[in-house]
């Protein structure tokens, strides 16, 4: 009960405030979109830069924890594709969206606030390491499947791969991580006014991210067939963290903070990017929207269990 009061309730409480702000028309679609852009393009990148620039690296970095998280992510992504193909008879491009729904975690809008609240500053480095590789690892697979399914021929494959690489490198969140690491490794100390400004932005990054998540969820429809969304949410919230735990603890023998971060981050609901991707390629948007909404709602319970089990 204390865990629910001190960690889960505040985090999801702010998400609910963002949700109600949109539903009560205190915040419109344009306002929600602008908050999302502010979070992704400014607040979170600045927070990542500021914290990584000053972070003290441990003597030993357990790189294997990335295998725990991404081994689980790729496994459930494949399972989502199998479910779409054989369970729901969906074409290849829609199979890719099913796979993303099962394997793509909400690492930024929910993962950062929840994990840093639950595990403290020691969780910062592993959290940021997962985020650094997240899109670069999972998006190329999804894009390749979507384009193969839609049989796009207007551009060569090499051109599409080059565009994807540029999108990843130009991502403000990735830029914040890279610049923060460069400043840290160079031993540069940020000037007083810059440090103070970055700290101020960092203080609003997490609440703004939660408001943006709640506002975005309010726009997702829940009408229609919930079967695919329920299956994908189950894969995301239960199978993914179970696989991550098996790899992290019994196989690799990882401890705090590496194992808890890998497992709880694996238990995050489907990320909003799943829906944005489906809308961009105009495929399986109904499934994507409902998966994000259903998994986010159900994660209140599943994340509470995971946090208890992982010693939050």
Index terms:
mainly alpha, 0% strand, globular, 312 residues, 79% helix
Low-confidence stretches: none
- Principal-axes geometry comes out as globular
What radius of gyration results from the CA coordinates?
A: 19 Å
Assembly level: single chain
The biggest beta sheet is recorded as: none
- Report the mean per-residue pLDDT as an integer: 87
What percent strand?
under 5%
User: What is the count of β-strands?
Assistant: 0
Q: DSSP helix count? A: 13
Topology order in helix (H) and strand (E) letters: HHHHHHHHHHHHH
Compose a concise summary of this entry:
With 312 residues, this protein is mainly α. Helix content is 79%, strand content 0%.
What does this protein structure show overall?
The protein is mostly helical and 312 residues long. The protein is 79% helix and 0% strand. Helix 3 packs antiparallel against helix 10, helix 3 runs parallel beside helix 11 and helix 12 packs antiparallel against helix 13. It is globular. The protein starts with a helix and ends with a helix. The model has no long low-confidence stretch (mean pLDDT 87).
Q: What is the fold's blueprint, element by element?
A:
Blueprint: H1 2-23, H2 29-54, H3 64-87, H4 92-103, H5 107-119, H6 124-150, H7 157-169, H8 172-186, H9 192-218, H10 227-251, H11 258-266, H12 272-281, H13 285-309
Helix pairs in contact: 1-9, 1-13, 2-8, 2-9, 3-4, 3-6, 3-10, 3-11, 4-6, 4-10, 4-12, 5-6, 5-9, 5-11, 10-11, 10-13, 12-13
